[in-house]
Amino acid sequence: MPAPKEDYYRGAGRPKLRQKGEKLAPLSERLARIGLASDWDFVLHLPLRYEDETAIVPIGSLKAGVTAQVEGEVTLERVTPRSLTAEVADATGRLQVRLLHFYPSQVRQLERGSRVRLYGEARPAWGAGGLEMVHPKVRRALAEGERLPSTLTPVYPAGEGITQLWLRKRIARALLDVDLSDLMPEALRVKLGLPRLREALLYLHRPPPGADLSALQERTAPAWKRLKFDELLAQQIALRHSRALRSAARAPRLAPQDGGRLTSRLIEGLPFALTGAQLRVWKEVAADLASASPMNRLVQGDVGSGKTVIAALAACRAIESGRQAALMAPTEILAEQHYRGISRWLEPLGVRTAWLSGHMKGAEKREMSARIASGEAQFVVGTHALIQDGVAFHSLGLAIIDEQHRFGVEQRLALRGGSGGLTPHLLMLSATPIPRTLAMSYLADFDVSVIDELPPGRKPVSTRLVSIARRDELIAAVGSEISRGRQAYWVCPLIDENEQLDLTPAKTAFEEIRSKLPAASVGLIHGALPQAEKDAVMESFKEGKTDLLVATTVIEVGVDVPNATVMVIEHAERFGLAQLHQLRGRVGRGSEKSWCVLLYGEPLSETGRERLRVIRQSSDGFEIARKDLELRGPGEFLGARQSGMPMLRFASLEEDGDLIDLAREAAAEWLRTDPQTALRHAKRWFAQREGFLEA
C-alpha cells in the first residue's frame, strides 16, 4: 500500500511537503523569488553541488560513506504505509534500498524483476548486514545502446515546485541563447591566466568526469576565479561610472569667506583642541567643499573620535559661503543630541539654527518649515522629517547624514535634492568602521576619511564576561560604583525588532534593580515612551540626577554622559558585534576608569560565543568591523539594501581581496581605453539588478 498522496517535491535537493489543496504561485513568481527572470540570470544560476553519474560501480565495490551509481535487478520489495524497501542485486553483490516517502510511480519502478539504476550514498544497512541507500535517485536501467552522461550532473538551488530536470533544460537553453562572447580585453584575460567566459560557464554547469570537485565546491577552480573577477570588475566599473556622472554635476563652491572667519572662530571657541586626525580630515573635507564638483565623502571614526566637530566645521563653511547646511540623523534622540551639541557651538557665533522632528505639532512644524524655506534657518537638524513633503530649503549647500548606513539611497538623494540647479555637497558620518575590502568594493564611489585618533585623556574601557547566573552579584557591584558618585547603564535586548515586546525585559530589570538598590535613583527609557518622557529621562541622566539608566538600544549611539563608567549589556549574545561596540562606547567618555560587562545566557551558540570572544579581546573598531562583516555578510553589515547597491553573488570580500585590488586597477584602465565596452560589461552584470547604473 503506497503512502498517502501528499505532494512531495524537491527543492535544492531536499524533499519539501506542500499541503493538500494548496495552489502553487505562477511559475514566473516562483522563479523571481530565487532571482531568475532573464536568460542571463539562468546562465549565472550555478550549481550547489554535482552528482557523478558518468560511471556505474559494481555493488560489491561500494564503500560506506561514498556516493556512487549502481545498476541491478530488483530481487525483493516490501511496501508498508510508512516505507518502501527493496533489494537490488548485480553479479557482484546485493544492496538494500529504503524510501520513507514515496510515490506510486516509485513502487512501480521498484517492482520485483525490474532493472534499475540507483544514485546515492551507501551506508551500513539499518537492522541488517550489508549496505543500503536511503532515498537514492531511482531510474530505469540503461537500454541497449544508451549511454551514460558525459559530464557531472549539476544540482541547482531550486524554488517551490521547480524541478531539477526543468532547471537543467531551461539553463541549457539560456546558455545557447545568451551572447557569451568575451568583452574583457584579451590582454587582461591572458595576463591573469583566466579562461574565456563561455568556457568557464560551461565548465561550471557541466564539469567533465574527473573534475576537481573540491575546487568546484570551494569555488577555487579557474572557472570560478573568472566569474568572481568578472563580477568584481563590473562592480568597480559601475561605481567609477557613478562617480564620473556625479562629477559632471555642479555644486556650489563653499570656499572660505572673510578668511574663513566663522570656522576659525568655531575652532578657537571649542573647549578642547582638535586632534591631528581631526585636522587632517577637516582639511580633506574643506578641499572638497571648495570644489564645484559635489562632495561625496564618508567620514568614519571609532566611537568618541570626534566626527561631530567635523560636521560642525563643514556646516560653518557652508554658512559663511551664504548657504544652508542640514544634518539628518536616524533617531530622534541622536538628532536632538546633535542639535543641542552643535547649536551650543554655533549660536554664540551668530548662526541661526532650527530643529525639525516628526513629533512636532502642526503649527510648530509649519513655522519651522517656513524658516527653512526662507533661508532664515542657516543650520537645520532633524530626523526623516527633513525629507517629508512640505520641507524645502532656500539654498542648501551641504547635506550631512549621520549613521549613513541606516539610510537608503533614496533618502540620501531626497535630502540632497538640490537648489538652483546646483547639487549640495554630501558628508556622511559613520561610527561603524568600514573594513577595507567592503569600502573598496561597495563604497568605491565615495571618498573615505578616517579619524583614527581618540581625543587625549580617554581611557580604554575594560570588558568583562559574566554569566547571567551571577546577575545579583553584578547588581551589587554596580551599586558600589554608584555609591562612589558614578553613573551606569543597564541595557536590555531588543526582541524581534518589536519595541512592544521589548518592554517586558526592560521593565522587569528596572523593577528588580530598583528594589535591590533602594538608595539609587533608577530611570527607564525605551522606544515606546512618549517623546517628552524620553527627553525628560535622558535629561535627568545627563544632569546626574539619575544614577542608573535601564534602557533598550535607543541609547546605542550619540548619548554622551562623561560621568557614566559602567555599561551592563544583558543577554549580550543576542546583539551584533557593531551594536556591542557602539554600546560599549557610551562609557569611557570621561577621565575615570570604565567597565563594560557582557551578561550572557547559556547555552551559547557558536556565533554568540565568537561575538563575545571578539568584543572582549579587541577594542579596535576596524578589527571588530572586519569580524562583523565575516559573521554577517555585506548585505546586513551595510544596513538596508540600498537601491542601486550592486550586491555580490559570487565573490567573497574576505577571501577575494586580491581580486578586488586587481579589479579596481583593471576597471580604471578599461574605462580609460574603451569606456563603451567597459560599460557593456557592467550592464551585463548589474543592469537588471536594481538598476544600479541609473541610480
From TrEMBL:
One of its GO terms (molecular function) is DNA helicase activity. Residues 484-630 form the Helicase C-terminal domain. CDD domains: DEXHc_RecG, RecG_wedge_OBF, SF2_C_RecG. InterPro entries: ATP-dep_DNA_helicase_RecG, DEAD/DEAH_box_helicase_dom, Helicase_ATP-bd, Helicase_C-like, NA-bd_OB-fold, P-loop_NTPase, RecG/Mfd, RecG_dom3_C. It holds the Pfam family Helicase_C. Coiled coil: none annotated. It catalyses: ATP + H2O = ADP + phosphate + H(+); Couples ATP hydrolysis with the unwinding of duplex DNA by translocating in the 3'-5' direction. Its EC number is 5.6.2.4. Keywords: ATP-binding, DNA damage, DNA recombination, DNA repair, DNA-binding, Helicase, Hydrolase, Isomerase, Nucleotide-binding. It comes from the Bacteria. It is an enzyme of class 5 (isomerase). Residues 288-451 form the Helicase ATP-binding domain. PANTHER family: ATP-DEPENDENT DNA HELICASE HOMOLOG RECG, CHLOROPLASTIC. Belongs to the helicase family. RecG subfamily. Plays a critical role in recombination and DNA repair. Helps process Holliday junction intermediates to mature products by catalyzing branch migration. Has replication fork regression activity, unwinds stalled or blocked replication forks to make a HJ that can be resolved. Has a DNA unwinding activity characteristic of a DNA helicase with 3'-5' polarity. This is ATP-dependent DNA helicase RecG. It comes from Mesosutterella porci. The gene is recG.
